[in-house]
Specification:
Shape: globular
Number of helices: 2
Structural class: mainly beta
Number of domains: 1
CATH topology: Thrombin, subunit H
Length: 211
Amino acid sequence: MGKWVRRFWVAGLAVFTPVLLACSAGQASKGFISPRLMPAYIPLSQSYDVVFSRWGAAMTVAPNVAVTNDPNLTLIQPGRVLARSRNYDLLFFRTDLPLVPLMAKARVGDAVIAYGQGRNADLREASGEVVALDEYVERRCPDCPAQRALVFRADAGAGFSGGPVVDAKTGAVLGITFGYLDGDGGRRMYAYGIDLVIDEMHRLLDRAAMR
């Protein structure tokens, strides 16, 4: 189990590292399935020079609070960072966006769409299906809680880190993508369920407010 999980994290980190002339993952999106997603979605990108770039995404999860993956820290203005999770691959930051999308719990078999960014700053999407709930992957530190992931099959990848995975029928946000693993059955995408994301946000921000 340890080797399998380690391979997952190596693959997951490939989502976040600088990419040299890489092709964008997923396919070009024709737009969000729900109009409530548009004002809550935040594209992230950073260009080093003409060939090196990084891109990712974020999502508003509370009025003026957005979430992305922690390796996207360099894509966020330093003064806007509110909290970085030690337990999960999550970072919360201040945004001027007050609107929050519809949220819901995922179920195995749900048709989903993941959204992310392409290398040309274009919106990308990848359709798939939820295949597992609360799948465990390696802890981030020895005394951290186990990582619980929502797993869906989809051809997403670079640029989808920190982006939302939504119900393909309702547009409700089900989770926040943080990694992927390639195997014999194709690519498995990993996301934190939205309940876990919201709980971690309250744990970190409520504690900070009490100081």
